Amino acid sequence: MIKKFLLASGIGLVLLPLDAFAETDAQVYGRAHLGLRYVDIDNQESETEVDSYASRFGIKAKHGISDDLSVLTKLEWEVNISEQDGANGSDDNIKSRDQYLGIKSKTFGQILIGRKDTALKKSQNKLDMMNDFVGDIKHLATGENRLGDMVNYQSPKFGQLQFELTYIAEENSKQSDGAGVSAAIGYGDKALKKTPFYVAYAHDEDVAGYNIDRVSAQGKLGDFTINGMYQNSEKVSSGDDGDTFVVSASYKIENYKILVQYQDDETGFGKLKDSGSASSVGVERKLGKQAKAYIWYTQRDLDNSDDEGHLAVTLRYDF
Question: At a CB cut-off of 8 Å and minimum separation 6, what does 276 contact?
């Protein structure tokens, strides 16, 4: 009921007269991303599925209150536009993504309150070539958290150096032993334009039940980009720990981009709750400023489950 009310409220904002936003820089945006996937799992019959890949709808706004200070907010929901549960879908088709309110200063940085990706999750930047797909690193690696009950601070840039801190209050349902802290420090340009590299170190202390150290790096040479990530994860409740590695690369050829990624995990702490490896290859085809098409294949070799092969063709439209 609450989800429906929030969505209706967001649609109501869209329908307001333009002069209602006269003093605010407001934007309605979204993404529709759908695909057809062929799934082949050992010892099971193969099947095809229609999937929605983190399709979303949101509103973000920024209002200047002085030359150096602005108030900003973002309300975003994931919309699963492919699943059908019953005659008219399900409440599960709408899920909360980033939703926060905060202030931003060119001098002192940015502070946000609400729900958002942790500093550790953001530190890997865009090295995940299979983001939102079956090969997404979150399926094997833990730490890819978007958490509520949080306060997030991001510093201004000191040359190419910037740090970020996320505090997760103990009332968050994923916090079992008090509050958690996620911190990250990065050097370089995340867009790989002002500098051809970006490196970061991040640490989670008792965040969603884990302590994590993560190092990630990206480098660009012409149209070629190569990325790497290493992390050690410890489960707070048991003391069990292990390592995760990710290597990925992309190569741009006119309107095409070739994507490759390999991940190896020994922890079993990720979304799959199983250890193993995932190898992915794909091609991204740019169809204009707002649309892209993909074809990709991911092979999962899991330690405690049947091996899986996934082949998909997808279409994405951003607005």
Answer: 140, 264, 265, 300, 301, 302, 303, 305
pLDDT digits (tens, 9 = 90+) for 179-190: 999 999 999 999
Q: The tokens of 251 are what?
A: 């190569």
Is 230:243 a contact under the CB 8 Å cutoff?
A: yes
Q: How far is Cα of residue 90 from the mean position of the Cα atoms in its chain?
A: 24
- The one-letter amino acid code at 244 reads T
Mean pLDDT of 122-128: 97
- pLDDT tens sequence across 265-296: 999 999 999 999 999 999 999 999 999 999 99
Identify the weakest region by mean pLDDT among 14-23, 79-88, 103-112, 115-124.
14-23
pTM over 0.90: no
111 secondary structure, DSSP code: E
Q: Pick the closest to residue 4 from 77, 70, 60, 67 (CA basis).
A: 77
Cα end-to-end span (Å), the chain: 27
Region of residue 120 (phi > 0: left; psi between -120 and 50: alpha; otherwise: beta) = alpha
* CA–CA dist 238, 241 (Å, integer): 9
Task: Specify the pairing of strand 256-265 against strand 241-253.
Answer: antiparallel
Closest C-alpha to 219, from 209, 227, 231: 227
The phi and psi torsions of 6 (rounded to 5 degrees) equal: -65, -40
Buried b / exposed e along 24-54 (16+ C-beta atoms within 10 A):
eebeeeebbbbbebebeeeeeeeeeeebbbb
